[in-house]
Design a protein that fits this description.
Elements lengths: L8 H10 L20 H7 L16 H12 L19 H9 L12 H17 L9 E5 L2 H23 L7 E5 L4 H9 L3 E5 L11 H7 L4 E7 L11 H15 L5 E4 L50 E7 L11 E5 L11 E5 L2 E5 L9 H38 L3 E3 L39 E3 L1 H6 L3
Parallel strand pairs: 2-3, 2-4, 4-5, 5-6
Antiparallel strand pairs: 1-7, 6-7, 8-9, 10-11
Length: 467
């Protein structure tokens, strides 16, 4: 067998880099090239290197650039295999076609695209009804780039209402604070930092079921609290936080002190799950019948549903946000925020824009943004309907329960999430207690939450394999 010697790759690359031909580099075709040269050959047919970090003096053929970018992007993971994301990675062919056909439409140009804006208004109305908008109130809302922007808008509205009240009372307004759990997504902390509000981040624990602890809420609210962020679906464990219990605490506090502290519900994920699943949000106030009872009456078109005490049925909940690009099943780029009534959105924050041919009332953190995702959201709402969304969400919950039970059945893992445990049971009972469920059961038989499987190594496993 022939002898072989090792190769120093650094030396090799330097030698190739210094070689006069530079044939190893990405190149584009020269002006003298014929059109029959393929994208692959064109990158090697020229002696001129393609620039990566500064704009090149000369351009390159479209086919060559397309092929090289396509090849480089092959190093990315496939979106439909991305289990590390809450963001949608699949839409139907018809929805994708609508997105492509409307890529050039700008949400800021309302007068130029009135049909798109009408769809935006319909989405706001539909979502308001899903979240239990109350009689006598006029819900108002907007699409956003995502839940991060929506959370900032909701928090800013709470801060402004608090400032206006302090001004009327002649009190200091220099030290606003807001409460949230340590399980909060970073967007909530960003709001506090960017808009100069003290973030009172309260510990979550096994005792509090990994949710915002109501007892800590009691100890941390004061006259400078502009509001409480309550999460309907933790991204860490999937738990729904006890909105109703926290609302009751704030009710009692107002009775004692006269201080009215609002709630903003961050339902980035749960806003499109709780209204549709049989488990709802797990509270006591889900008493409204589903959109379409079984069997549905002829021509039934009732648009009333809500999610049990986590929505606008609770007067203290002033605003709710969600991500259309999560369980709203749209590609990245759309969120929603709704205020229960337009009186809770301070007029100071609204801008009346006389631009691009008309007058538009706006409350956003940016101006131009794509409109295609709004169209895609409306497509999903009318294509899937209530039952379509329910079937999808129930299937997600079923899959998450099965995986959770399979993990715990091994004895090696304990799930921190608890949507696979019977309703009201939150403690791990051991692998021998695992039941794989019965035919016909739904999420209503289990704890409410997101279809999230969060787990750790079991105590027995760590003891047996301490190394």
């Amino acid at each position: 067998m022939a002898l072989a010697r090792h190769v120093d790759p650094d030396t090799l690359m330097q030698e190739l880099h210094d070689h006069p031909s530079k044939a190893h580099k990405h190149h584009f075709q020269t002006k003298t090239a014929t059109s029959s040269v393929t994208p692959y050959s064109s990158r090697y047919a020229s002696q001129q290197e393609i620039s990566k970090f500064i704009i090149p003096q000369q351009g390159a053929p479209a086919d060559a650039v397309h092929q090289m970018l396509k090849d480089e992007l092959d190093l990315d993971g496939r979106p439909n295999l991305n289990l590390a994301s809450f963001v949608g990675t699949y839409m139907e062919r018809e929805a994708e076609q609508l997105v492509i056909e409307n890529l050039a439409k700008n949400m800021s140009d309302a007068d130029e695209y009135p049909a798109m804006m009408a769809m935006h208004a319909r989405c706001v109305s539909i979502i308001s009804h899903l979240w239990g908008v109350q009689k006598g109130e006029t819900a108002v809302g907007s699409a956003t780039v995502g839940s991060s922007e929506a959370i900032h808008l909701g928090g800013l509205a709470m801060k402004r209402r608090w400032q206006e009240k302090r001004d009327k009372e002649g009190k200091d307004k220099s030290k606003p604070n807001i409460l949230m759990g340590s399980n909060a997504q970073v967007a909530l902390e960003k709001f506090a930092r960017y808009f100069e509000v003290e973030a009172r981040i309260l510990d979550v624990s096994e005792k509090s079921l990994y949710r915002l602890d109501p007892e800590l809420v009691k100890k941390n609210i004061d006259e400078n609290t502009i509001g409480v962020f309550v999460i309907l679906g933790s991204t860490y464990t999937g738990h729904y936080e006890p909105v109703e219990e926290i609302s009751n605490i704030l009710d009692e506090y107002e009775k004692k002190t006269g201080i009215d502290i609002p709630i903003h519900v961050d339902a980035a994920s749960g806003g499109f799950i709780a209204p549709f699943t049989h488990a709802k949000a797990g509270g006591r106030k889900w008493y409204v019948t589903p959109l379409y009872p079984d069997p549905p009456p002829p021509h039934h078109n009732k648009l009333t549903t809500s999610f049990d005490g986590r929505n606008f049925q609770l007067p203290r909940v002033k605003s709710i946000n969600t991500s259309g690009h999560k369980f709203g099943l749209v590609y990245a780029g759309v969120g929603w925020i709704i205020w229960r009534d337009e009186s809770y959105l301070p007029s100071y924050l609204k801008f009346e824009l006389h631009y691009l041919g008309g007058t538009e009332e706006s409350y956003t953190l940016n101006f131009s943004r794509p409109g295609a995702q709004i169209i895609a959201q409306y497509y999903n709402l009318i294509h899937l309907g209530f039952e379509g969304y329910r079937n999808i969400m129930e299937n997600c919950m079923s899959n998450a329960r099965l995986l959770s039970k399979a993990l715990e059945k091994t004895g090696w893992y304990i799930c921190v999430s608890d949507i696979h445990r019977r309703k009201g049971q939150h403690v791990y009972q051991g692998p021998e207690e695992i039941e794989y469920g019965n035919e016909g059961e739904t999420s209503a038989d289990y704890n409410a939450g997101l279809p999230v499987v969060a787990f750790r190594l079991s105590d027995d496993f760590q003891k047996d394999y301490s190394h």
